[in-house]
Specification:
This protein is mainly α and about 110 residues long. The chain has a domain of about 35 residues. The chain has five helices and no strands.
Length: about 110
C-alpha cells in the first residue's frame, strides 16, 4: 500500500505539468490519464458498492416493491456496458501506439 500511495502522490503532482508550455497533446493526454488512474478509483468503488447495494436490496424486497419502477435489465445492456468500459480502458493505449507508429520523428 505504501508503494501505491507514493505512486498516487507522484501522479497527482502531474497536475502542475498539464499547463506546461511546449507539451504535445499526446503528452498532456497521457499525464491526464495517469492522474485519472488514481483519482477515478474512489468513483469506481462507489459505483460497485451502489450496484451491490441495489442487488442486495432487490433480493430482500418483496415482489411488489421489486418490480415497482424498475424495468428488467437486459443482457445486451450489460454486454454494452462491458464493451464501453473496455473501450475506455484501451482506447488511450491504442491512440498512443498509433501516435508513436505514425510519428516520422523517430
Amino acid at each position: 500500500i505504501k508503494r501505491d500511495l507514493r505512486w498516487c502522490q507522484g501522479n497527482m503532482q502531474y497536475l502542475r505539468l498539464l499547463g506546461m508550455k511546449g507539451l504535445l497533446p499526446m503528452g498532456r493526454l497521457q499525464l491526464l490519464l495517469a492522474i485519472l488512474m488514481y483519482a477515478a478509483a474512489p468513483a469506481w468503488l462507489g459505483f460497485m458498492a451502489a450496484g451491490v447495494a441495489q442487488a442486495v436490496w432487490l433480493s430482500l424486497a418483496d415482489e411488489a416493491t421489486r418490480t415497482a419502477g424498475y424495468a428488467p435489465i437486459h443482457l445486451g445492456l450489460g454486454i454494452g456496458l462491458f464493451a464501453l468500459m473496455m473501450a475506455i480502458n484501451f482506447t488511450p493505449k491504442v491512440a498512443g501506439l498509433i501516435d508513436v507508429l505514425s510519428s516520422t520523428e523517430r
